[in-house]
Write a structure and sequence with these properties.
Blueprint: H1 2-5, H2 12-18, H3 20-27, E1 37-39, H4 44-54, H5 61-66, H6 70-84, H7 90-97, H8 102-125, H9 132-170, E2 199-207, E3 216-225, E4 230-235, H10 241-248, E5 256-261, E6 264-265, H11 271-276, E7 278-282, H12 292-297, H13 307-316, H14 320-324, E8 341-343, H15 352-360, H16 368-383, E9 390-394, H17 402-414, E10 420-424, H18 430-434, E11 437-442, E12 445-450, H19 452-458, H20 461-472
Parallel strand pairs: 4-10, 4-11, 7-9, 9-10
Antiparallel strand pairs: 1-8, 2-3, 2-5, 5-6, 11-12
């Protein structure tokens, strides 16, 4: 419209000059990013939002899915957002993004007058093409276009920021396992086993999604696990031990074959119901970017406020002793989301801003064994819910010493009543000797199964693996 109205004064050129002021502010601002500084987030509510949002990332997928954390994370995120309030207002961000200099203000002011200066020059050169009315129309039109253009730029930035906030807020609702889910409640009263959960695998084959050459992790596996049994799965690396656990805990569905829980196909049950009755403890579970208290308490989100139960779980998992030595105890956050960044800071270690950055970025380190004790405590927190009917323990103690491993297994077995327990382990010790059923895996198949004594007498794959470990402790071994 403006190009058409101003055709007597150069149309497109006049319209372009109307946008000169907002364009100058976009491309020639003297902004904060050209300075040398260190910045970090010190608002505890915003830090908590960042930590909770981080739990929806792919590297926490197993914990997120098996722990039914979605509802708790979204609730806590919204609570933190309300507490944060409106401290980061649009006016704050506008000042952060734009710090104009006096020279820029003068230039911007002049740019705002360019359309009418251009119009006046044309009127002097070609007075017959202009009237008082046309000048008034062009002046009003140029102001309208300029402010409309400024509004578009400002609103576009605001929209982009708000979309980012909403994406983080609702990311947790998008974290869904890609599994067939049913509508049958678990446990079903008519099929419930009081002794624990029963499993049956019928000719199960599984290929991990995206695996190279479509390598088969399990090949036609069939087995039956009775309720209340203590089962130990052994075998070499890559033999399919952990894959069985991932299928039973519904991280994946089999590529082919059928898995039954209490004689019903597992896909018919609601996954959320099943996971409330399953406690998993594996080497893949991670520490959360939250306090040690929450790291343990989230084993049972419904009882996260029960401090006495958290302390008890911490003791059973073997974490209470080292946590007591930390300055903040259970309130310790190992990786606080202070989001410390530097801009244009020299690499000189003696530079004061470099020292400040290193101080802000400092994290608290604990050993691998201590991390496993925290995850173990999280598992005991889940066991205290009173709903667990199946416990899956997958090579969790690789960083624990022999005594720590023994104590952990003894405490888990002590709470065995009413639960089916499956242990995956490389170490042949007291577990295999007392197991109701040992399953020995090889190349994705069940090589043999039975009791410890029976498998030793048969002299098969289990006896070979057992003897290799026994020889390591015999006199004269290297």
């Amino acid at each position: 419209m403006i190009v058409h109205a101003s055709r007597s004064s150069g149309g497109p050129i006049f319209a372009f000059l109307c946008t000169a002021k907002p364009l100058l502010r976009v491309f020639f601002n003297d902004n904060v990013w050209s300075k040398t500084f260190v910045v970090n987030t010190n608002n505890k509510h915003y830090q908590r939002m960042e930590s909770l949002a981080a739990l929806t990332a792919d590297n926490y997928r197993q914990d997120f899915v098996t722990g039914n954390l979605g509802g708790h994370i979204l609730q806590e995120y919204e609570k933190a957002r309300e507490q944060l309030g409106d401290t980061c207002t649009d006016e704050f961000w506008d000042q952060w993004d734009r710090k104009p200099s006096p020279a820029l203000d003068i230039l911007s002011s002049m740019a705002g007058d360019l359309p009418m200066i251009y119009c006046a020059m044309n009127a002097v050169i070609n007075p017959r093409k202009f009237s008082i009315a046309s000048v008034a129309v062009l002046q009003q039109s140029s102001s309208t276009l300029r402010y409309s253009f400024q509004s578009i730029i400002y609103n576009a930035k605001t929209f982009q920021r708000n979309v980012g906030k909403l994406t983080k807020l609702y990311a947790v609702s998008e974290q869904k396992a890609k599994l067939q889910d049913g509508d049958l409640a678990y446990p079903a009263a008519e099929t419930e086993n009081k002794e624990g959960m029963a499993f049956e695998l019928r000719n199960v084959t599984f290929v991990y999604p995206g695996s190279k050459n479509e390598a088969t992790a399990l090949k036609g596996v069939s087995l039956t696990i009775k309720p209340g049994q203590l089962v130990v799965i052994v075998g070499a690396n890559g033999s399919g031990k952990s894959t069985i656990i991932k299928l039973l805990t519904r991280l994946y569905d089999p590529t082919s074959g059928t898995i039954l829980v209490d004689n019903i196909p597992v896909q018919q049950f609601r996954s959320s119901d099943l996971r409330q009755t399953m406690a998993t403890f594996s080497q893949d579970h991670k520490l959360y970017p939250l306090s040690l208290y929450e790291n343990i308490a989230l084993g049972n989100p419904a009882l996260v406020s029960d401090a006495a139960l958290v302390a008890k779980a911490s003791e059973h998992g073997g974490a209470s002793e080292f946590i007591a030595k930390l300055a903040d105890g259970l309130d310790t956050i190992l990786e606080p989301k202070n989001n410390a960044y530097s801009f244009n800071v020299p690499n000189d270690p003696e530079h004061p801003l470099r020292k400040q950055l290193e101080k802000l970025s400092k994290k608290i380190d604990i050993s691998g064994g201590e991390k496993q004790r925290v995850v173990a405590s999280r598992t005991f927190m889940q066991l205290h819910s009173g709903k667990v009917k199946f416990v899956a323990v997958d090579e969790p103690s690789s960083a624990l010493d022999a005594e720590g491993e023994l104590q952990l297994f003894e405490r888990l077995i002590a709470g065995r009543a009413g639960k089916t327990m499956i242990f995956v382990t490389h170490r042949f010790g007291h577990l295999t000797k007392h197991a109701d059923l040992i399953i020995c895996m090889k190349d994705g198949t069940i090589a043999e199964s039975g009791s410890h004594d029976d498998l030793l007498r048969s002299g098969g794959e289990y006896a070979k693996l057992y003897q290799i470990q026994a020889d390591a402790f015999s006199p004269g071994s290297l």
